[in-house]
Amino acid sequence: MILYEEGPPLLRAGELDIAGRRAAAQAIPYSGEAGPPAFRFDPLERRFLRRAVEGRVLAGPQEPEAWRAAIARVPAGPVLVGPGSPAEEVWGSYRAAGEGALAAGRGAYLLDPPPEGLPSRTLFSAVALFSWHPEWASEAAAASVGRGIPSGLVFPLVPGWTAEERFLEQLASRAAAAGLTFLSPVPSHHDGEARRSLVEAQGGGDDFFESIHHLDWDEALPALSLAARDIVRRRGLSILPSRPVGSGEPPANAAAAARLEERADEAGDDEHRASLLRAAARWIDESGRDLSAILSEGNFRKVFPFAPDILREAEEALSGA
After folding, report:
1. In terms of DSSP bridges, do strands 79-81 and 55-59 run parallel, antiparallel, or are they unpaired?
2. Residue 154 belongs to a domain with what CATH number?
């Protein structure tokens, strides 16, 4: 038995990475790992989480205004909403959180939105992300695509399982056929607890157990990641999720921040450069001004606080927005 209890808006603030995209906060409509499926891949934690058969779940408010007021207090930038719950049709907390984020002028990443939880009006301000599991092809993904919401899958890259060429080809083919626009491989965490959860979630035998627990992940993952990205691109799918544009942010700023995030993803092993590009994207999100106008006036270099090479990237991003 799963017991739902009503609670206040629950927000997780901070720099969150969702498959290479920045979120300024997470609005959590349902808090508690209970109910099907038995395991859920969390793209923020980058690991499978075991879900209890029964337990308590805290459900947020059913009024969008309560979420809007709470979200308005967190730092500027897109908000991640989710994950959803099978109880959405009764509680409506997911839809309220999503509509509250949009009302606050934020772009919204909708993580595992149930069909009933899709906001009524999204335009370009929402992007749907579905965390992969063995039965990912769902009514929810079809509903999101049918509404014209940019949608895609975020899946764990696991040697001996989801990183295998045959698996990736089939997954990319199914994603493209379903009308999804992106397929984002996320290297799974591989500490001891994460490996145990992987074995249980995959349900494999001794060979998979041995592979997961004895493989040198740090050596294997870079090449596997490159191969996975190549397969995804050949299917015409994007690696990174689309970046939503909130009604309260200048469109050029949102486009420029998105391009800098993409440059950070392309930086590969150059972690220093990647972190600077992501910091620049955050600065653009939080600037509160239309930076394309400042650039056209010739004043952008006076206000942009990063080194010349990052400055050039930002200027090109704004010029091309």
Report:
1. unpaired
2. 3.20.20
